[in-house]
Amino acid sequence: MAGPSHNHRVIVLRKIKLGESDLILTMLSSDGSQLRAVAKGARKPQSPFSARLELYSVADVLIASGRSLGIIQEARAVSANAALHASLELSACAAPVAELLWRVSQEGLPVLRLFDCTQAAFETLGRVAPEDGPRICAAALIKILAFCGFRPSLTYCVSCGTPIDAPFNGEGDVSFSATEGGVVCQRCRAHVESVRVPWSAVRTADVLLRSTFSDIVASPLDQRTVFAVLQLEHQWIREHISCSMKSLLFLFSCGLF
Ligand SMILES: [Zn+2]
Questions:
Q1: How confident is the model at residue 177 (pLDDT cuts 50, 70, 90)?
Q2: How far does residue 53's CA lie from ligand 1's centre (Å)?
């Protein structure tokens, strides 16, 4: 029997089939915590849930506490973010954001600004051209990582704290240690295990972290640099979230780079 019911504003992150026609939804709640609940009959074409609880959409839901998972009793669409389903490329840019969120958000653990950041990211993705999608994705990933406590050090050496200077002419590579937590200076390279990454990727990741999505839309970036930022983030996620994100691998192969 259903328990007490509560209203939540959510963003739908993930859907898993349950039984013949139900879905288990993983959602980000407005306080930045994760919510999971069953939408009964949601895979039937005539179900009101099917259109109102699409991936990446914002909705108001009424959830009754269940024995293990809550049961969604009502859903009202707030923002469908339909453009993300109309374009394969934009959908491919939204998917890593949703995947990272379901991996790092936790039930009962509010994270300030996570919901607003995600809502802004999906809203922005919905109004840009496909080729502008990857840098919005890259910005959303680094911001989500920072909000959840996985912020890399992009400007100071993780070993000695020295500010990292741009290599000659701002080109070239710098040392980066995902294990130790970020960039490594010339002097510490000898005793910190690191890999060489493009300086432009490190600098751009830092700019994306500090910029609003509106500013990022207004500032075109070299697609090769955006790709390098996404690869840096993938490396960081593998090390700190212990997963290889399939959605990022798909984004790398969907023709945008
Ligand atoms: Zn150092």
A1: very high
A2: 48
Distance 181 CA to ligand 1 centre (A): 12
What pLDDT, in 10s, does the model give residues 179-192? 999 999 999 999 99
Q: Which residue has the tokens 């490594």?
A: 184
Task: Give yes or no: residues 10 and 57 share one domain.
Answer: yes
User: Are 108 and 196 in the same domain?
Assistant: yes
- Measure the CA–CA gap between 58 and 60, rounded to whole angstroms: 7
Q: Long-range contact list for 74-80, CB < 8 A, 24+ apart?
A: 75/39, 75/48, 75/49, 76/52, 77/51, 77/52, 78/9, 79/119, 79/123, 80/51, 80/54
Distance 174 CA to ligand 1 centre (A): 12
Residues 192 and 218 in one domain: yes
* In a domain? residue 48: yes
Q: How far is CA 51 from CA 55, 56, 61, 196, 248, in A?
A: 10, 12, 13, 46, 26
Provide the domain limits for residue 68.
5-79
Q: Are residues 190 and 216 in the same domain?
A: yes
